[in-house]
Design goal:
Radius of gyration: 20 Å
Helix content: 25-40%
Number of strands: 15
Strand content: 25-35%
Structural class: alpha/beta
């Protein structure tokens, strides 16, 4: 076991220059209930990009180690640990305290890479309650995509009103959450309409099982188009809303009565000239909910579904080394990725 390791820290809010690499950081202290994990892979999320810009709406600890998503091998366990043993392959839980049930104030203060130190390092010590076993069918790179994007998509489809076979799902773009939603929905026997602006990405979405792909540049009223594609034009039952104010109006045009719009992000920016209001939800008789990842119980249920259905997370063809993290952030900021962008520590 080495005495030191490499880790990144977010030292300010001036952009990616705020990311600083410490090549000789001491290994984390192992407490009685903690698990020391030798991290092999991490995946990036939009949240990681906006934290060093000071744009994340939740709490961020000073000098925090970034990254919520990690996969690795148990290197050592505290004397009170019972769930894991040395050599186990594990994944991190985004909100370390969110074990089951709805999110609460205590849990929201336990987010890796924000409120507490995260995964963009070679070794991490985590509470045994904040880890799950990695699905045996996945590599570390694939496994590292699950803690945020995978679990967020799962929660969107099953957390409030469970997706049923034959229902319709609308996804936006080709980011990690949207791709997982396509895969989970098809495994459940649902129909999927997806939006994109690229002909190349259209073919990739179809290869993943999307039944309809709408080019939102060619079809600005893509919400109306998605609704027309459903039986009787009744609308879609689940929408994963990742665009924010720029796309919410179209989502409301696509939703079915009693459908669920899960608001996950704001890739299109947080400012909008005109945003829908609460009355729009009433007029469309739908539920609009904010989603912040999910709990450990949902994570374990999702992993069972991944194993049972042979689902393979989509990892971008370009994988960055830990030392090249700034370049990875810029690559994702420029939206050059398809699926999940990963960092390898091996």
């Amino acid at each position: 076991m080495p005495e030191t390791h490499q880790q990144w820290n977010v030292t300010g809010t001036t952009g990616f220059d705020s990311l600083k690499l410490n090549s000789s950081a001491p290994l984390p202290t192992l407490t009685d209930s903690a698990v020391l994990v030798k991290l092999s892979a991490a995946s990036l999320n939009y949240r990681d990009l906006i934290i060093p810009h000071g744009k994340y709406p939740f709490g961020v600890a000073p000098n925090v180690i970034p990254g919520s998503d990690g996969a690795g091998t148990v290197a050592a366990v505290g004397k009170a640990v019972t769930k894991f043993k040395e050599g186990d392959k594990v994944l991190t839980l985004f909100n370390q305290g969110h074990l089951a049930g709805p999110l609460d104030y205590a849990s929201i203060g336990s987010g890796l890479g924000g409120a507490v130190d995260g995964t963009l390092r070679e070794y991490g010590a985590f509470s045994e309650q904040g880890l799950v076993h990695q699905p045996a069918s996945l590599s570390f790179l694939e496994g590292s995509t699950l803690p945020c994007a995978g679990l967020t998509a799962w929660n969107a489809l099953y957390g409030l009103k469970a997706l049923k076979p034959g229902e319709y799902v609308l996804t936006q773009g080709t980011g990690g959450v949207s791709i997982f939603a396509v895969q989970f929905a098809k495994a459940a026997g649902a129909k999927v309409s997806a939006t994109t602006s690229s002909a190349a990405k259209t073919e990739k979405l179809k290869s993943l099982g999307a039944d309809h792909v709408i080019n939102y540049k060619d079809t600005p009223n893509w919400g109306e188009e998605a609704k027309k594609l459903t039986p009787g034009g009744r609308g879609v039952q689940h929408i994963l809303e990742v665009g924010g104010p720029a796309t919410m109006a179209q989502s409301l045009k696509a939703i079915a009565f009693d459908g669920v719009i899960s608001i996950i992000g704001f890739l299109g920016g947080a400012d909008g000239e005109k945003q829908p209001g609460f009355l729009d939800c009433l007029m469309n008789i739908c539920t609009v909910r904010g989603v912040l990842v999910g709990n450990r119980l949902q994570f374990e249920e999702m992993n069972l579904a991944i194993e049972a259905n042979g689902i393979k997370p989509v990892v971008d063809e370009k994988v960055f080394k830990l030392k090249d993290l700034k370049e990875a952030y810029q690559y994702m900021w420029d939206q050059k990725h398809f699926g999940k962008l990963c960092v390898s520590m091996e």
